[in-house]
Design a protein that fits this description.
Layout lengths: L1 H19 L2 E13 L12 E11 L4 E15 L17 E16 L12 E19 L8 E13 L4 E12 L16 H4 L2 E11 L14
Antiparallel strand pairs: 1-2, 1-8, 2-3, 3-4, 4-5, 5-6, 6-7, 7-8
């Protein structure tokens, strides 16, 4: 029985090691910003520093799955906007500050054949989408409403570039459709309940660098140059 258990354990380890040959881990550095009831349509409003980690597993030259964990600090104020639909903004201005941890699992599609760390200066634009969850670290607002943990619908566009057999980099613009209307502390100002229109958004934009820890001497011919 001990030999059987040992054999199963060794097999699992070997499979995990070979799985890593198509996986990369890395870091993201950029900015985060918010859109919602206070800021309905201005991109890169009050951008704040953001950072995080990335794990990407490549199934083949087109498809990959990735897990992200990002930190964001979001803020906004009615005093930054002139809006005829909210004439009381300068009488009772709403302001908020929320920091959170954003975790997502996304499916990624590359428009050009791409396998990281196999061909120098290989590149491709890509899109991704999936599901996510936000954990609130701190939240305050003049309305008295605090942000709560919530699910998100993440999607992104970007460009990946291979530098050498170990390192890849890229740029990315990510969006989060939240399942919450409490990020900014302003809930349903129009008086009309709507899951589609009332929920808040936040976004990330920046650069990432990923690293391949396992690099076998002989790669699969289908991926080698």
């Amino acid at each position: 029985m001990e030999k059987i258990i040992l054999s199963i354990f060794i097999s699992i380890c070997i499979q995990n090691i070979y799985a890593q040959r198509d996986a990369n881990v890395g870091i993201f550095v950029g900015t985060a910003y918010y859109m919602g009831d206070i800021n309905p349509n201005k991109h890169f409003y009050r951008p704040r520093p953001s950072f995080g980690v990335i794990y990407r597993y490549n199934f083949n030259k087109r498809y990959a799955i990735r897990a992200n964990g990002y930190y964001a600090n979001l803020s906004g104020s009615d005093l930054d906007f002139i809006n005829d639909y909210h004439p009381d903004r300068y009488v009772n201005p709403a302001e908020f500050s929320t920091s959170l941890l954003d975790a997502t699992l996304q499916f990624e599609f590359s428009f050009l054949p791409y396998m990281p760390n196999t061909k120098k200066w290989n590149y491709t634009p890509y899109i991704s989408g999936g599901i996510g969850y936000s954990t609130i670290l701190s939240s305050s607002s003049t309305t008295g409403e605090s942000a709560l943990p919530h699910f998100t619908l993440p999607f992104s566009i970007g460009l990946k570039l291979t530098i050498n057999k170990k390192v890849s980099t890229g740029i990315e613009w990510e969006f989060r459709k939240t399942m919450s209307d409490r990020i900014d502390g302003v809930m349903n100002p129009s008086g009309i309940e709507s899951i589609i229109h009332n929920n808040d958004w936040y976004s990330f934009a920046g650069i990432f660098i990923t690293y391949k820890f396992f690099n076998f001497a002989v790669d699969c011919p289908a991926y080698s140059d």
